[in-house]
Amino acid sequence: MALKMVKGSIDRMFDKNLQDLVRGIRNHKEDEAKYISQCIDEIKQELKQDNIAVKANAVCKLTYLQMLGYDISWAAFNIIEVMSASKFTFKRIGYLAASQCFHEGTDVIMLTTNQIRKDLSSPNQYDTGVALTGLSCFVTPDLARDLANDIMTLMSHTKPYIRKKAVLIMYKVFLKYPESLRPAFPRLKEKLEDPDPGVQSAAVNVICELARRNPKNYLSLAPLFFKLMTSSTNNWVLIKIIKLFGALTPLEPRLGKKLIEPLTNLIHSTSAMSLLYECVNTVICVFFFSQLCVQKLRILIEDSDQNLKYLGLLAMSKILKTHPKSVQSHKDLILQCLDDKDESIRLRALDLLYGMVSKKNLMEIVKKLMIHVDKAEGTTYRDELLTKIIDICSQSNYQYITNFEWYISILVELTRLEGTRHGCERIILSKSMCRSAVIDVLFSNQTLEAMLRPKVTTLPGHIQAVYVQNMVKLYASILQQKEQAGEKEAAQEITQLMIERLPQFVQSADLEVQERASCILQLIKYIQKLQAKEVPVAEEVIALFAGELNPVAPKAQKKVPVPEGLDLDAWINEPPSDSESEDEKPKTIFHEEEQRHSRHRQPEIDEEELARRREARKQEQANNPFYIKSSPSPQKRYQDTPGVEHIPVVQIDLSVPLKVPGMPMSDQYVKLEEERRHKQKLEKDKKKKKQKKEKRGKHHRHNSLHTESEEDIAPAHHVDIITEEMPENALPSDEDDKDPNDPYKALDIDLDKPLADSEKLPVQRHRNVETLKSPDSEVPLVEKKSKKPKKKEKKHKDKERDKGKKKEKEKKVVEEEEDEVKKKSSKHKKKKHKKEKEEKSKDKKKSKKKSHPSEEEPPESVQNGTLEDEPLPVSSCSKPLRFSQGNLQHDSQVTVSVIFENKSTSFLKSMELNVLDSLNTKMLRPEGSSVHDGIPVPFQLPPGISNEAQFVFTLQSIVMAQKLKGTLSFIVKDDEGSTHEKLDFKLHFSCASYLITTPCYSDAFAKLLESGDLHMSSIKVDGISISFQHLLAKICFHHHFSVVERVDSCASMYSRSIQGHHVCLLVKKGENSVSIDGKCNDSTLLSNLLDEMKETLSKC
Amino acid sequence: MHLQLSREINSVRSVKESEDTQQQIIRETFHLVSKRDENVCNFLEGGLLIGGSDNKLIYRHYATLYFVFCVDSSESELGILDLIQVFVETLDKCFENVCELDLIFHVDKVHNILAEMVMGGMVLETNMNEIVTQIDAQNKLEKSETFIFQSPRQDR
């Protein structure tokens, strides 16, 4: 044994601890991964050992490795083992590891429920604290539901340290288990006025966090917070409250006026910059807005402290939402901030710009941004800039863009930038979108050709889809142009080009692209045939795009109600057999498509014909001197540049050349636009006509200008960009704006409604109880209740202490009946004896479990003479569960059986018996639980019922009587609800209870007395009136002796202790007195035994 | 330097991420923070990695150490800067003149200290004395257990 222990600790010495691990990793920089995998192997070995200290050390190291990015979820079970260690040191390591690596997907997490519950109710506040901290990191909906009630109870814990943690963790519980919010809210509210500032702060924190998401439910708390704001001196609390008011005030404008005064006071009195800032921030944004405040912010922004500058801009952006005009006047300052060396500040300024643009200044702002794009080195920032430019321009459907030619030129410039792969996709997308709108304005041969370049296929699918669509539009326009100009050959060429290039899209992996491309391809092939017959087709093709086809809103489908009686999941026809369909379906699609677009049927073209045509085309191309051979050239040209560089650069056939040497082309537009506006103004002044003449000869259809736009700036081209289309019968609901998965939506709960009976937190059911069913296992959380019983309970405790007696029963008290019950219980307390039998020794080898309850117990209860209506704790036997030679002298066990009788009229459940262990006597608890854990009583008690439970104690020394303090906690449930109650008791182990009645023969007895090993002691008790016979019976019964020999009024008696002490007595009765001489191996035990006997006899 | 950073980021733990994502966040954050000059502001706008625009990185730089907190808009920016200061001062008290190596070798202790300040992503306690008291009490408890641990009778 000893050797094993030594070996164990030597092993442990060689284990690496955390520090060794860290040092090792630092020393193995070159082969870190290898070293760590070695360490993990060691750790796995350590985890296999039984020693909890070794395990904890291993888990501690794992936690560190987790931080380095190694997956340690395989050790989840070991972590739970360490969590359930009884020592705080290990427990803390376990919970830390759990909080680092457990998450909702960890399956073993459900095993922790009971362990956590135990820790939560631990008498050691740090056990509870560490459990709460850990739980806050990995709470799951299940854990939240199961533990909500326990945490609720902790919110009223006596220690502020626990209270504040319990309050704070409630937020996590609410998130995971929203049903708990209403039952728990009253107590949470109470905590706002907790005497401890930490608890108060936690409560404010939780409520603010809740209110931030759903402010309207918390309006009723405003007066309470108002009071707090004027009384609290904690800056953290104040900041939170002020932020909260910032959220509440928009909902209740009257609040604003009330708040001005306290806020102003704070602003004047506080020295904390953080608080000051929050006050100012809230004041300007919410309560009374003034130009003055913006001026103040300006001062902040101009401050040399970068943090203040940043915050100033941040506040500014909040104002922007409500008062955009007043911010616009500070454009200079904000543009200046764009030059700041600090990226955070530049980004803030960019954000502000977004809200500042108007038709007037858009071009100017974008021009400045373009300069920044050129200067920006970091790609992140440049991408951000690009995105912002596009956002700024495209906001509200290009509301601020007056000249799309300019915009396109900007986009073209942006695409030319190098190394902005990220931003480019955005640009193309936006460009394509834009193009579909402005396509009529800008078209040309080259554009089409550019669009057909093979590299386009490297773009993402959704962009290609837009692309393909626009190609046809372009094609249609060009076709019309050519036909009108009578250039038939050119028209045919362009058709040929389309047919040539479209197949690359038909092969696209993206379904949408594929579908669109193949439809169009068929269409164009048909057109080609018509062209060959010299039929003019342009008009008809153009007609395809005659109607407005707005984009369909993404939510449109959802908004169409399903017509009554329509089952979308039902088959319309019998499900087709597998063989069919495949080939046929596409045909029908084409069929419909063509019917819609043209009057003639496209004859189907089979592969052969296609091949033949392709051949013919090639031939034709080869012979055509005007045809630019497409095959290798475009690819070659771009071969050595990365893919995004291939974004086609649109050559726009416009009045102004896009490329002006030495000058960015968009600048040209700025100038032109200015000119145009100027001209416009002049014209308007002169004529005040609404109709305008063409400005830019080439664009016939879009020159009717809107002269009455808000800012009197007419767009150069009128482009209809209509909002997304909704089906006519769409439901006008906004519900879908909210994300159904938003965790905070579930917390949108009316808290002012009184609690209904059904709203309760689930309380754990007792697992062992199957026979007794509780009427209702849920406990409504009614606050007032829990308080009253507490006081009563105290009275009980006092009484008990007075009586100084042993253990008693539980009792539940319902209001009036209370007194009565008390009397009863105090009465029976006196008589109650808890008793225990020990036993053990020679029959160690026998299996105890079977023999004792059946054989020993019944006789004993008889001996004890149990009184009928009084609950008697009855003792029974005990036995060491383990037998080990070395420990015999120090290890004895005693089983205590306790009868619980419910004398109240309420239902009792979840009883847990806990005893404060002494060094000598300990309650035997299940493996893995701590010394502070109670042991559940395996049954529930309906009114008037009694039942018996047994508990095992371990003793080291039996020479002295022992008294243990204990607590029985239980839930009292009656019609009105349920309360948690406790009952304190003392458990008295008399020395007699360590004796086992053992028969002894007189000769053996005589030898024993002669041996001389025994200490001797004696007592004499006067005033004994009962008969000698009766007296001996009492000693036998109460002190577990047996009579060896009796001669007249003299008797010898014998007994034996569980640890093998022999006890011999010589009892002599005189007149009215009894003298007892005792002999025993242990003098202390003997004198204690005699003292007990004296007490018993003196009562006779 | 990298290690310290990782710890702090881990400790924010507002969102449970896989280890890979965690490491990526840490690397990226480190990259962002370390290339910033002195005398710029202590705030960094949130990227997608840290949960979008509502979130911010707020950091302080002490010698070779960066303390980075990731917070959402319900926290006061300057308040968090104060909190980092409290954290560092607490570390200084608990380790008695804290230095980089203390933090490297006693990651668990740093975690325990942080746990007294921030719980489940929410600020728990901002009063340094209170934090130090609780930490000391727990250390004492741990020591007393070590003592019991060494006595063979209890060990069994």
From TrEMBL, chain A:
Residues 605-752 form the AP-3 complex subunit delta domain. Transmembrane segments: none annotated. Keywords: Acetylation, Coiled coil, Cytoplasm, Golgi apparatus, Membrane, Phosphoprotein, Protein transport, Repeat, Transport. One of its GO terms (biological process) is synaptic vesicle budding from endosome. It is found in: Cytoplasm; Golgi apparatus membrane. Residues 584-620, 673-685, 740-784, 799-814 have a biased composition (Basic and acidic residues). Residues 722-739 have a biased composition (Acidic residues). It holds the Pfam family Mu_AP3. One of its GO terms (cellular component) is AP-3 adaptor complex. Gene3D superfamilies: Leucine-rich Repeat Variant (1.25.10.10), Longin domain (3.30.450.50). It comes from the Eukaryota. SUPFAM superfamilies: ARM repeat (SSF48371). It is a peripheral membrane protein. Residues 567-641, 673-884 are annotated as: Disordered. Residues 686-704, 785-798, 824-835 have a biased composition (Basic residues). Belongs to the adaptor complexes large subunit family. Part of the AP-3 complex, an adaptor-related complex which is not clathrin-associated. The complex is associated with the Golgi region as well as more peripheral structures. It facilitates the budding of vesicles from the Golgi membrane and may be directly involved in trafficking to lysosomes. Involved in process of CD8+ T-cell and NK cell degranulation. In concert with the BLOC-1 complex, AP-3 is required to target cargos into vesicles assembled at cell bodies for delivery into neurites and nerve terminals. This is AP-3 complex subunit delta-1. It comes from Zonotrichia albicollis (White-throated sparrow).
TrEMBL record, chain B:
GO terms for cellular component: AP-3 adaptor complex; cytoplasmic vesicle membrane; Golgi apparatus. One of its GO terms (biological process) is Golgi to vacuole transport. The keyword Acyltransferase does not apply. SUPFAM superfamilies: SNARE-like (SSF64356). Residues 18-141 form the AP complex mu/sigma subunit domain. Keywords: Cytoplasmic vesicle, Golgi apparatus, Membrane, Protein transport, Transport. It is found in: Cytoplasmic vesicle membrane; Golgi apparatus. It comes from the Eukaryota. CDD domains: AP3_sigma. Its main location: membrane. It is a peripheral membrane protein. InterPro entries: AP_complex_ssu, AP_mu_sigma_su, APS3, Clathrin_sm-chain_CS, Longin-like_dom_sf. Part of the AP-3 complex, an adaptor-related complex which is not clathrin-associated. The complex is associated with the Golgi region as well as more peripheral structures. It facilitates the budding of vesicles from the Golgi membrane and may be directly involved in trafficking to lysosomes. In concert with the BLOC-1 complex, AP-3 is required to target cargos into vesicles assembled at cell bodies for delivery into neurites and nerve terminals. Belongs to the adaptor complexes small subunit family. This is AP complex subunit sigma. It comes from Zonotrichia albicollis (White-throated sparrow). The gene is AP3S1.
